[in-house]
Write a structure and sequence with these properties.
Elements: H1 7-10, H2 19-52, H3 57-78, H4 81-87, H5 93-125, H6 130-137, H7 139-156, H8 160-184, H9 189-211, H10 221-255, H11 258-292, H12 297-324, H13 326-333, H14 342-350, H15 352-367, H16 371-392, H17 397-423, H18 427-432, H19 435-457, H20 462-483, H21 485-511
Helix pairs in contact: 2-8, 2-11, 3-5, 3-6, 3-7, 3-10, 3-11, 4-7, 4-10, 5-6, 5-7, 5-10, 7-9, 8-9, 10-16, 11-12, 11-14, 11-15, 12-14, 12-15, 12-19, 12-21, 13-20, 14-17, 15-17, 16-17, 19-20, 20-21
């Protein structure tokens, strides 16, 4: 028997309140997402620091090579269902059952394909060990299929807190418990394989337990057509984006060796930490929130400009500081034997804002289901990444990083030109939304660079250099916050803080 009841009507967590309630939900969700994602990344960096002192670049290179193919297949196995669950109006329980069935069948199919084609992947990269690792890691296709639907149901409801808790718990158990223990026992790269599998099991089990989605299989022609019709464009755009993000790794792995791939992948992964944080916020809050107001042009335009302003205010100074402090960051996190990571890491970080700045425009296009624009963006990005990497690789890893950074800037321009067109935003307003971020970036570098230069000349330890630079920057920020809060934070951030203060005051008044 089918059940066409709408998920939104039956679920008490659905966000169906007035606009003010959405703003409060977004503020709370952003707070939880940021806090838990920062916790997750801090834990991940800690575990990475430990593993980098036990394992070798070759071990990370083998895993990075296998992961390229695993992550691609995971995207294909999801068949765009996750984004469709978030974006589709009037989602029913039958839709959820069909979605779960499609994802599970797809996961089984890709597991079998991985067993068949793993030798070809190993031969392509010419890295010993990739074939066996790929076959074992393929188990994540089946395991993760159980978690895709409940995770995206939570995202649809803007209930990101429980998604993030699942992620943090899985990371602690998988990498912190199993991965480090097995690495210490001498398992080499197989320790990373075991950690990935355990993380996937823990996260999927947690999500199923707390959401309890309808899991009885259902497969109908009408339901499949309804879901797949919407998911096709999302899938194509995500697949193109996948290749664009990992083409540099493919080129390095194919033309160099496992150690070079291990070095480049560490640089890229560390650079991606802030980008991944913001990607989580964009995918789990900004995209579903924009999807709920996709037919309200004024609110959509305001959300785009405010999101861009906030991203620039956070991302531009962060990007500049990471590039300046690259030697200290790598020394502290990875250790002295990973010094070769410093160059590509600094280059990649110098353009990392443009990765962040693409997330808001990308979320707007997804919310409007503008799949044509999404696909165009990713084709341009992919072409520039592949072309740049093929031209740059004879000159070394740093040249590949530079080519990738240029491609990111071009992608940022393409995405936001399309987003401005869709949202009805003129060029002047878009540029103006970046001015505060530029000012903060210049101020941050002007404060930190002289301090860092002096301490490096004095041969101060990396932790001292980073600590002193951070303390000086914090003092300057506090002084500005005290004397000129709008100059430091901008109008939008100040208004958010005022809203939060009023909310706290109302709660205290209600309690008293």
């Amino acid at each position: 028997m089918s059940d066409d009841s709408r998920i939104d009507d039956r679920d008490p967590l659905a966000n169906t309140g007035p606009p003010g309630s959405m703003k409060r939900t977004l503020a709370a969700g952003a707070g939880w997402t940021t806090a838990l994602q920062l916790t997750s990344k801090a834990i991940e960096l800690g575990f990475t620091a430990v593993l980098a002192r036990i394992l070798f670049p070759h071990d990370f290179g083998v895993i990075a090579g296998a992961t390229i193919f695993i992550e691609l297949a995971l995207l294909l196995a999801e068949v765009g269902i996750g984004a469709t669950i978030v974006q589709m109006p009037g989602l029913t329980r039958d839709d959820v059952r069909v979605a779960g069935t499609l994802v599970f069948l797809s996961g089984i199919g890709y597991f079998l394909l991985a067993q068949l084609f793993a030798p070809l992947a190993g031969a392509f990269l010419n890295i010993d060990g990739v074939t066996g690792v790929l076959r074992v890691l393929a188990l994540v296709f089946v395991i993760q299929s159980f978690g895709i639907v409940p995770e995206n149901l939570l995202v649809r409801r803007l209930d990101v807190r429980r998604v993030m808790i699942a992620q943090v718990l899985a990371r602690i158990v998988g990498t912190g418990g199993v991965g480090i223990a097995l690495a210490w026992l001498g398992w080499g790269y197989w320790a990373l394989v075991a950690a990935a599998l355990v993380e996937t099991v823990v996260k999927a089990a947690w999500l199923v337990a707390i959401v309890r989605p309808p899991m009885r299989p259902l497969l109908t022609r009408a339901g499949t057509k309804r879901l797949m019709g919407r998911s096709a464009g999302f899938s194509v755009a995500r697949i193109l984006n996948f290749f664009a993000l990992r083409s540099n790794n493919l080129v390095v792995g194919r033309t160099m060796d496992a150690a070079a791939l291990g070095i480049y992948s560490r640089a890229f992964n560390l650079m991606s930490v802030p980008s991944e944080l913001y990607t989580r916020i964009a995918e789990r809050l900004v995209f579903p929130a924009m999807a709920q107001v996709q037919d309200d042009a004024a609110r959509l335009r305001a959300a785009f400009l405010r999101g861009t302003e906030l991203t620039a205010a956070i991302g531009m100074p962060m990007s500049a500081l990471l590039a300046v402090l690259a030697p200290e960051v790598i020394e502290i996190i990875l250790g002295s034997r990973w010094a070769a990571v410093i160059g590509p890491f600094a280059i990649l970080c110098s353009a990392s804002y443009f990765r962040l700045g693409s997330k808001i425009g990308g979320s707007l296009q997804r919310a409007k289901a503008a799949t044509g624009a999404m696909i165009t963006n990713q084709i341009v990005y992919l072409a520039m990444v592949v072309g740049g990497a093929l031209i740059a690789y004879p000159y070394g890893i740093e040249a590949v990083a530079l080519a990738g950074s240029i491609a990111v800037v071009a992608s940022y321009i393409t995405i936001n030109v399309n987003a401005c067109r869709i949202a009805g935003v003129d060029l002047r307003a878009f540029v103006a939304s970046h001015l505060h971020g530029v000012l903060l970036a210049v101020l941050s570098v002007a404060v930190v660079l002289p301090v860092v230069t002096a301490l490096r000349r004095a041969a101060a330890p990396a932790v001292v250099t980073l600590g002193v630079a951070g303390a000086v920057l914090a003092v300057v920020a506090l002084l500005l916050f005290w004397r000129r809060p709008r100059w430091l934070l901008g109008d939008f951030l100040v208004s958010l803080m005022n809203d939060a203060a009023r909310s706290v005051a109302r709660r205290r008044g209600a309690v008293s």
